[in-house]
Amino acid sequence: MNHNSFLTRLDNWIKNGHSACLVIVVSTWGSAPRQPGSIMLVRDDLHLEGSVSGGCVEGEVIRLSQEAMESGLPCLKQFGVADETAWEVGLSCGGRISVLILPVTDTGIPVSILKEAVMAENKRGSLDIEFMLADIPKITVSATQPKSSLHAVHSSNLEEEKSLFNLRLRPKNQLIVIGAGHISQVLSRLALNMELDTTIIDPRAVFLSKERFPDVTIMQGWPQEVLPQLYIDAQTAIVTLTHDPKIDDPALAHSLKTDAYYIGCLGSSKTHQLRLSRLKELGISNIDLARLHGPAGIPLGGRAASEIALSILAELVSKYYKRGNQKVS
């Protein structure tokens, strides 16, 4: 589960009695800094999350969101350098954007659709939310399961002829780290900057704390007990970092039964050969063992924890895109 999800936050705001707007970039032209599907949240007390332009038009979007919360009606607004309003709000970078401002109401983004999106997100599922914009401020909103495969990169899009905008919700890439040592601390911080949904697993309670691992999920327990509780899909990378066969080996044995696109193991080449021998004794085939990346990381030459963490992230990014995930569907 991605605890930093915009939609989860929006749902929690509504549950706590706030009014709020979901603001979505619908289309862009030229050098607009944010892509279609980018999200911003505006709450009734002016608490903000996300952005739609990198700062250029947010002030005007906040004003329009306040109006939408009062009226309960959505609006579709375009900003561009040819427009006097665009210059006033600061969009002078040479691009244009179109944003959809949706209050959380039956006439905007219905609560039922929002809850369906959050439920799919919590299960690492996918959802397409379609907005029929031909009769704005009256819109029709529907949610459907996507037909395209999970491990492709998807993009939200506007079909201008139909006035139909499709917000494509897909799970973020996920990183599961076995072991809560120093390298894991650095790795988790870098992973957050890369917007990876990150989980740390370790049976040793002394290593696990929110102080050491802020803003990521921590789960105490043996990997073979914890991993079956998680949704592991083709957008998941798993890395073992404890150097302890009692912890790492069961984690690897379970990981090789999943669709994880990357499974990495910390340690030297000699350590990795010993690891492979132990896993063979557990009945794991050579074909499955070939999926393991050990030593984990590309050879940058560094030995510091930050350098090792960087090399691991570089390798898992490379492996992800080499699987053909750069295709847009």
Q: Can you walk through the features of this model?
A:
By secondary structure, the chain is of the alpha/beta class. It has two domains: 6-169, no CATH class; 174-325, 3-Layer(aba) Sandwich (Rossmann fold), CATH 3.40.50.720. Helix content is 33%, strand content 24%. The protein contains ten helices and 15 strands. The strands form three sheets. The chain has a six-stranded parallel beta sheet with strand order 12-11-10-13-14-15, sandwiched between helices. It has a five-stranded antiparallel beta sheet with strand order 3-2-1-5-4, sandwiched between helices. Strand 2 (39-43) and strand 3 form a beta hairpin. Helix 1 (6-15) packs across helix 4 (111-122) and helix 5 crosses helix 10 (305-325).
Compact description:
The protein has 329 residues and is an alpha/beta fold. It contains ten helices and 15 strands.
